[in-house]
Structures are given as C-alpha cells and as structure tokens.
Design brief:
single chain; mainly beta; Immunoglobulin-like; six-stranded antiparallel β-sheet; 46 strands; binds beta-D-galactopyranose
C-alpha cells in the first residue's frame, strides 16, 4: 500500500533505546558476498540477496542464491533495479552469528531479529524455520492485508537449536507488495541478544491517569515481564518539577514479577504543568537497569457550567433542496430542551435531542435563533444556514476510523464511535462527522458494477440512517485508482456510479485518496493528470442531490491548495500521513506556514488527522506517543491553522486528559471562527514560534510555541499581533482573562508546549 510520495519520502525512524552491554568480540558477518557492518551490541543486516517471484524452496538455508542480486535493506527494491515490480519476492540475508554473541548477555535464551518495516506483508524464516509473519498474502485464507508500516520485531528461542553458531545463517523473507514501493525500505535490520532486564517493560507511555477531586492524579502503570524468567528488583521513582528544576518526591519499592506476567502499580502524583516522573528498575541479580520517564498529564480546560450554553460553528453551508441533518451543540445539566426561531420551512427540530432535519431551503442566507434551556436557565445564539453551493463554511470536525482501526474498521466500531461521540460530550462541542476510512469495500463489485460494503459493513444505508438520526454526518473513503492504499477496491471507471451509491446511502463527506491512481499518470505526472481524477469525482458528486463535502487526499502534490476548490474540493491534504511523534507534527502542522494564506471558508488546508488519545492504525491500541505538552501544541496549532479537526482515536477508551483536550470550546471557537482565516507565522526564531490568526470582529488568536525541549520563558512583542496600545488578553485553554496589557507579554512555556491567547 503505497502512495507516490511515500516513494520519495525520507522516513524518520524512532531510535530504539536498548540498554545492552557492549561486547568486544569481532563480529564476522556476511550478506551474500558483501560484509555487514557491526556495532558493539548489534549485528547490522545491511544487505540481502533478492529475487522476484515466489518459491517456498527459497527459505532453505542451503539454497544456492549466488546468482541473486545484492540489494541494500534500507531502500525499496524498485529503486535498486526492479522499477515497477509488484507482487511476490524474496530476500535472503546471510549472517554469521558468532558464539561469542552469547556472552554479551546475562540471559542467552533469545535472539532478537529486528527486520524494520516491510512493504507490504512478510513471512520470515531463520534457517528454514518460520519466525514471524506480519500482514497477509493474497494466497492466505483471508486474502491480502498490507502492514507496510508495522515494525517486524521477531524473537527466536535459542533453546530450539535453530541458530548455527559461527556459521552462515539465512534469514529468508517472503514478501508480497500490493502497489507502489515494495520490500525493505526503512531503518536497517539487525540482530541482537537481549539481557534479562530487557524483558521488563516499564511502559510509561501506556500508563493510565485518573484525576482526583483534590487536584492530584492517580497513575496506574503496568509493569510487564515479557520473558519466561522471574524479574526481581527495586523500582525507584522520582517526581520532578521541570519548571523549577526540583525533585518533589522520590520513592522505591521491591517488585517481583512472574514469567510473562504483569503487575499493575498505583501512585498518586501532583498534577500541574511541568511534572515529570522517572522510573528506574534495578535488577536484583545483575544490577542492570531499565528506565522510563513520562510527563504527567494536566488538565487546563475548566469543567462545563451546569447552565445551558450553545457551542459549535455559527455557520452551516448546504446545497438547496438537499437533505440536511444537524445536531445543535450545547452543554448544561440534563435534560436540555431546544427550540429555534425562524427555522426555514422544510426543516424541523427535535426539541429533546436538538437535531434539526429535513430539506435545505432555496438559495439564500437564513438566520435562525437557537435556544437551549434547562432547569437553571436558558441561552440563545444566532446560527446561519447558508443555502448555496459552498459547503464546509467552517473546518469539518468529527472522527475518522483510520488512526485507530486501520483496515479493521467495521459497522459496529463506527456506530459505537458515533454513540460515544454523543455520550462523552464531544458532539455537544461541535464534533459531528463520523467518517469511515479505508477498509469498508467488498472485494468485488455487484453484478451491475456497484460498489458494496464488505462483510464488516452489511448495510450502508442503515448505517447512514443511524448516524443521521443522531444528527451526525456520514463520511466515506475511496480512491480514484483501481485499488485504495489498503488494497481495497477503488472507483476507477465507476466514478459516477460510486457517487450515486454514496448519495443513496446518505453519505455527506468523501475522502478521495490518490493511491494506485499513480499508475495511471506519467512519471513525473503533469498538473492536468493530477487534477483529472479529482475533477471527474467532483463533478460526479455534484450531480447528486446531496451536499457531499469533497476531501482531496493526494498528499499536497502540485500545490493542491491553489486548485483544490476548482475541482469541487473543500478540503485537501497537504502532506503525507501524520504519526504520533513530534517530528511528524512539525512536518505536517508546523510546515504549513507558507500556505495558510490560501485558507478560506470552504477551502481548508488539511495537515492530516489528530493523533491524540488511543491510536493503533489497526494494531493494538495504545496511547498517543506525543507528550501532554505536545498534544496541547498539536490541538492549538490545528485550531490556529483552521485545519479540519478529525479525531483519529478509539473513542470508547477516551481518557480524561484527552477528553479535556478536545472539549475546550474556546479553543474550538478559534478553529471554527466564521472568518475562516488560517494563522500566519509571525515569528520563527530561537526555537520560538508565534502564529497569529485573525478572528471575526477584530480579535486575534495568538499561539506561542516553544519548539525546544526545555521549559523556557520569553517576552512576546505586542507588535507581532498588531497591537501597540492597550489590549485585553485571555488564555484560551484556561478560559481565563489575563487582564489589560500593553507592549510585551511574558510567557512561560514547557518544552514542545504552547500558550494559546486571544487578544481583544
Ligand atoms: C493513506 C492516507 C491515509 C489513509 C490510508 C488508507 O494514503 O493518507 O490517511 O486514508 O491511505 O489506506
């Protein structure tokens, strides 16, 4: 599953920190005829013999591969003489594993074989014995499944005698590549021998946090023993105030964990900005240590008032005469009752749910007075329905299945996400789209050529109704190519038919992902070739009697921000896929500075979906790897950019911190502001960035980002946001007035963190 730009992209890899002792033995290695460089603690596997085709005899250690070509293991085979090849292929890595390797560890029972990532699926063998498999092949019972990004980290039990010490060993890797780049492409594979203490997993990133009423946080850390031996030692903890550079408390406890078991440990820590916990486990037998650190989450968003309050976008664009479903966003102690004055004919409001439904009136602008009340009072606000051709007048907000479920998405997961969006109070803040990404399509079209949902999506119309009944919007995904990025059916040659199917199902949003369409373009493609498939689908959607927001996904090629609207798009991806690390947030969000002047109502630059909460891309769910401060920056920046806000996390496991991050209506208001401006970067110096977004009515939102990893303070000149006299300052995250200021303001910002201010 490849997109053309993945071909060219330089992948950023996360360094694995493994506290292995070094060993001095000279490591003799070979890959085919070439030698492999070794580091003190690893046998690097830089080269392999390679052949296209598929023959299970190629897994045998003694198979003669001397006629095969030698490739390096960090670049697609297509860039090494096999241009354009997709399908089965094999790599054979030869490596002499010296017996001295065993003395490098206090527990010589496992050999770790790290094969980096393989595009798209692999099945790997050591000396003819299968050691692991990731993804699946077309010949497998359930068919092909790409897992191009997943790490291949296999372990071999040495007691089985599989390793041929001091002799040639062969790691044979059977690969299936669905499209685009194929085979090894990422960081260099290697072999290593873990220490006993490496079996102890102090996964601080997986810790769970529960905020207590007294302002502290209760942390539960699962300490896992991944090895079949007992782990015994002392676990030390140290709590630091990073802002003040002080240790606040420290402690130690003895722990024993049975083989392959885990232990849940609880602590109660202070919670405020800048609190860090360090864990250090000291193995009782070897004295070796395992360490982990995490920044504790802290909540800035104040709790919602019990009195009724209206939230969300003040504008909605819809095409005249098309079906409309809209959920009024409001908070306050239940039950809430809704009413609306001057609701155009053809629309009705459900007074209990706040769902407006019916048919969009004739072209024109309609001001509707919304009202919500409960036992404590009432609130009103004007909401404007603009019936016309322009959709997405404010950035789309909602949820998309990809970053959580990848290709394992199902009807049940989608319905559950929708219900949680409502039950946990996200819809009450304006999160209102539920978008299915790749993985819903059946392997074949019906007899009359229609696209249909696969076994996990038995009834698309019923799903659409389920969402619309709740006032939510229904989003779907396809590719202009023959297949999607995940290898599912695309729309090539069926554009109009697919648009009609979507309309019949009640679809309100289409993400259209270039993927395999790259094969239909010349190399390098022309602008016209890039536009053609989007133009075609844009027209097909327009022919439907629905308001379908068209989201272009071609990773920002050919300056899509300059022509996306001309092919009917309202949203366009600007970059390759985001992932949950700070470098990626910089390469997606912070890289937008040159392009934000193209942002306007109905023309949104999309730096990709949000990476907060529990993520997994179809693998086991785990918390975002962004620190709490990085997450505040991520949400602050996306709000300033007026970027589409599409959650990518598993909603049922939404934690308290993430919920607070996503339900701050003052932050959301910056994103949804009716002026529809993208922020401009006004300062980028000494690892400080200041972004300023014009808001309706003359106010400005100002984001101050500390790009360094240290807690720092600085003075921001008010000229940066165009004020020289006095101005009122408000902290959007804390929803707190900071008073009247003039000239400079002083800010204290944690490393990779942000302040989000509103200047009036
Ligand atoms: C990628 C796209 C992702 C996701 C995926 C599905 O190309 O950028 O956001 O849609 O394909 O296969």
């Amino acid at each position: 599953m490849q997109t053309p730009n993945r071909y060219m992209r330089d992948y950023t890899t996360l360094t694995l920190r493994l506290g292995f002792a070094s060993f001095a033995a000279a490591l003799l290695t070979q890959a085919g005829a070439a030698s492999t460089p070794a580091t003190a603690d690893r046998l690097m596997l830089s080269q392999a013999r390679f052949s296209t085709g598929d023959d299970m005899a190629w897994r045998a250690p003694d198979f003669d591969d001397s006629g095969w070509k030698v490739l390096n293991t960090t670049q697609y085979y297509q860039t090494q003489g096999f241009e354009g090849y997709n399908g089965y292929s094999w790599y054979r890595i030869h490596v002499v594993i010296p017996s001295s390797f065993k003395s490098s560890t206090d527990w010589p029972e496992r050999l770790r074989i790290y094969l980096s990532a393989i595009d798209d699926a692999d099945e790997s063998y050591l000396n003819g014995v299968r050691i692991g498999k990731t993804g699946s092949m077309p010949s497998d019972p359930h068919g092909y499944e790409s897992r191009w990004e997943a790490p291949r980290d296999y372990a071999v039990d040495l007691r089985t005698g599989i390793v041929r010490w001091d002799r040639d060993n062969v790691i044979a890797v059977r690969v299936y590549d669905g499209a685009g780049g194929g085979g090894f492409y990422k960081d260099m594979p290697y072999l290593t021998m873990p220490q006993r203490v490496d079996g102890l997993q102090l996964d601080a990133g997986q810790a769970r946090h529960h905020f207590l009423a007294d302002g502290r946080v209760q942390t539960t850390l699962n300490v896992r023993n991944n090895f079949p031996v007992v782990q015994r030692g002392v676990l030390q903890t140290e709590v630091r105030d990073v802002a003040k550079g002080r240790v606040l408390q420290s402690g130690a406890r003895s722990i024993t964990i049975a083989p392959e078991k885990s232990l849940a440990l609880h602590w109660t820590w202070p919670t405020r900005l800048g609190i860090q916990v360090r864990y250090r486990f000291v193995d009782a037998i070897s004295g070796r240590v395992a360490t982990a650190t995490h920044d504790l989450p802290y909540r800035l968003t104040p709790p919602d008032a019990p009195t009724p309050t209206l939230h969300g976008a003040r504008l909605l664009g819809a095409r005249p005469g098309t079906p409309l479903h809209y959920r009024i966003a409001a908070t306050g102690r239940a039950p809430l009752h809704f009413s609306a004055q001057s609701l155009p004919q053809g629309l009705t409001l459900n007074a209990d749910s706040g769902v407006i439904s019916g048919t969009t009136p004739n072209a024109g602008s309609y001001d509707v007075q919304l009202r919500v009340r409960n036992a404590l009072g009432d609130a009103t606000r004007v909401w404007t329905l603009v019936a016309g051709e322009q959709l997405a007048l404010t950035p789309p907000m909602g949820w998309n299945s990809w970053n959580a479920y990848g290709l394992n998405v199902s009807d049940a997961l989608v319905r559950n996400a929708a219900q949680v969006l409502i039950d946990k109070g996200l819809a009450a803040k304006g999160w209102n789209s539920i978008n299915i990404d790749d993985g819903w399509e059946a392997p074949a079209r019906s007899a009359n050529g229609e696209i249909v949902g696969n076994a996990r999506f038995p009834d698309m119309t019923a799903l659409g109704n389920f969402l619309h009944d709740r006032g939510l919007r229904f989003g779907i995904y396809s590719s202009p190519g023959a297949t999607t990025c995940g290898g599912y059916l695309g729309s090539l040659g069926h554009e109009l038919q697919d648009a009609a199917s979507y309309a019949r199902w009640g679809v309100d949003y289409l993400k259209y992902d270039l993927c395999s369409y790259a094969a239909n373009m010349s190399k390098p493609p022309t602008l016209e070739e890039h536009q053609r498939p989007y133009h075609l689908m844009g027209e097909a959607l327009h022919k439907q009697a629905r308001s379908i927001v068209f989201s272009l996904c071609q990773y920002g090629e050919q300056q899509v921000w300059t022509w996306g609207a001309s092919v009917g798009g309202s949203v366009w991806r600007m970059t390759g896929d985001i992932s949950d690390n700070w470098i990626s947030v910089q390469e997606t969000g912070f890289a937008q500075a040159p392009h934000t002047r193209f942002v306007a109502p109905g023309r949104w630059n999309d730096p990709d979906m949000l990476v907060v909460g529990q993520l997994g891309w179809g693998d086991a769910l785990r918390p975002s790897r962004l620190t709490p401060d990085e997450q505040y920056s991520h949400i602050s920046l996306w709000s300033l950019l007026a970027a589409p806000l599409l959650l990518g996390n598993d909603l049922p496991s939404l934690d308290e911190f993430t919920l607070s991050l996503l339900t701050n209506h003052e932050v959301i208001d910056i994103n949804q502001d009716a002026l529809g401006m993208g922020a401009q970067r006004k300062l980028n110096q000494d690892d400080w960035q200041v972004w300023v977004k014009e808001l309706e009515g003359g106010a400005k939102a100002v984001g101050v980002f500390n790009m360094s990893s240290r807690f720092r303070s600085t003075q921001i000149q008010s000229g940066l946001f165009g004020r020289d006299g006095q101005f009122q300052l408000r902290d959007a995250w804390r929803q707190k007035d900071l008073g009247v200021k003039s000239k400079n303001i002083t800010v204290n910002v944690p490393g990779h963190g942000a302040m989000l201010l509103v200047v009036k």
